[in-house]
Amino acid sequence: MSSKKLKSANDASSSRDGLGGGESVIADHGRRRSTCGYCKSPARSSISHGLSAETLTVGDYQALIDRGWRRSGCYLYKHEMDKTCCPSYTIRLKASDFVPSKEQQRVSRRLERFLDGKLDVQPREQTGASSSLGTTRSEEKSKVEPVMDDLSKMIDQAVQLCIQSGEFPSNMQMPKASVKKVLCDKRKKLAKGPEQLLYTSNVAFPIAAAIKRTLTSEKVEIEGNKLSPETISEMLLSAISKVGETPGISIKVSKGHINFLSASKDSFYEKIKPKKLEMRLKRSSFDPEEHELYKRYQLKVHNDNPSRVVESSYKRFLVDSPLIYVQPSGGDDEEKVVPPCGFGSFHQQYRVDGRLVAVGVVDILPKCLSSVYLFWDPDYAFLSLGKYSAIQEINWYYYLGYYIHSCSKMRYKAAYRPSELLCPLRFKWVPFEVARPLLDKKRYVILSDIKESQNQSSLLPHASETLAAHEDMEQGETNDHFMGGSDDDEDEEMDESESEDTYIESDIDNIIIGLYGSQYRYKDLRKMLNPVGRKQLEPMLQSYRKVVGDELSERMVYELR
Fold this sequence. Notes:
- The termini are close together.
- Helix 3 (102-116) crosses helix 10 (385-393) and helix 4 (132-164) packs across helix 7.
- This protein is of the alpha+beta class.
- The chain is elongated and about 115 Å long.
- It has an 8-stranded mixed beta sheet. It has an 8-stranded mixed beta sheet with strand order 11-12-13-14-15-6-16-17. A 4-stranded antiparallel beta sheet has the order 7-8-10-9, sandwiched between helices.
- It has helices at residues 12-17, 58-65, 102-116, 132-164, 184-190, 204-217, 229-243, 288-301, 311-319, 385-393, 432-441, 454-458, 522-525, 531-548, 550-555; strands at 4-8, 25-34, 46-55, 70-72, 75-79, 89-93, 180-181, 196-201, 250-254, 257-262, 277-283, 344-352, 355-365, 368-376, 397-403, 419-422, 429-431, 512-515, 518-521, 556-560.
- It is an enzyme of class 2 (transferase).
- Belongs to the R-transferase family.
- InterPro entries: Acyl_CoA_acyltransferase (IPR016181), Arg-tRNA-P_Trfase_1_euk (IPR017137), N-end_Aminoacyl_Trfase (IPR030700), N-end_Aminoacyl_Trfase_C (IPR007472), N-end_Aminoacyl_Trfase_N (IPR007471).
């Protein structure tokens, strides 16, 4: 038997979660070993159990993630926590109790300042003719840089006038003037009246140093404070007035600096149009614009191999989803109310003035919003869009995916408080602050032991017994091995221990088996199986029941092919 399937029995799944029709159809891949992307171990030290889903109800997936499962595309996986190299604890945040930290508040304020035009940090210019940002930056440069260039030339001409008049030595090369833009925050601090400080130049300081070095080397006596930056700036100010006019700009000196101010309310910086941030939630589907952003993110931020960011791999990872969409609904029953967006898999787009800057892939489920992945424009790294999007996504219980205490890159998830970690054995939620001291000491911890008494914990199985994943049978085997023998085998005697008279009820009795288009409870199907078939099938059912839980194992169909 090369593969096995789990399929919801009739409408059992939909009737239990009360969220419309559909059924879960899942193939079981058993234990999987792979290299670890967190500790970078060359060995195949990451151990998990895998399922692939054709379809999956939101209620069933909610139950699965509450047992430590996650999805990547249509592939579901759960780490064998006591065996894998980097135990991955499911982490969630109760949104109603969320208290943003000072750092998280700074992230929100920083983005607001960027949108208002008050943040002087600019995104890096994106290469390529299709870059809308490149167009915006070039437009800004065409307005800002010529102004600073003109002011620099004006100062250079003033220096030459001072040389011609004999105020500055003629036997030395004067430094070129440099005019800089004054940052918004500093502009506010220095504001003392209606005029706004826009540009400044400290050219008087290098000129004073150059003159002093020249006169000292020529053993010419320097008189008093004549060559101080303050004096030189005053000399330049006088010369600038002879060079030409600067409409709309007044020039003053202060402590050696030449300052250019504007009293006009409609100066260029006052004309900056606030940027608009839009967040658009759309159902998961392929979008070429999103794929291009994903490629840039993976290549620049994660240094991925270009062969790994092709369209097909992107679709498998972030577009394909087995979740069955549930239409919005109203009503008084809070358990059955579906939000306006519905339940299912979505892409949350973040756009600045129409430009796509980030995409959050999320699953919206009956009891939570589960974050799948986020990718963003590397040009906007200064905005900390990962942190900002997390704050925006906190609506329901917010599941941030997996938390790996031993991985520094995952530690940020615990910064969203109050967070809880899922116990990998008893599937109880434990406050992160309670769990952290134990995780500081060792990677794998049965978190519920913190709250359970010694007597209670001794009655439960040890973590090492939680999962004994079955191995796939060899390719080409058929279900004939599980069925009763042919007519030629009618005289074969059943082993005494396998007789119906001695059969003891088992916890796998109520698992639903799909076989040849029919469905059976295992306690009924076993009557049709020979001893070899039962011996092969029962360990698989035991393993299956442990890995998906009692409730799901009895409302889903384990299909034999």
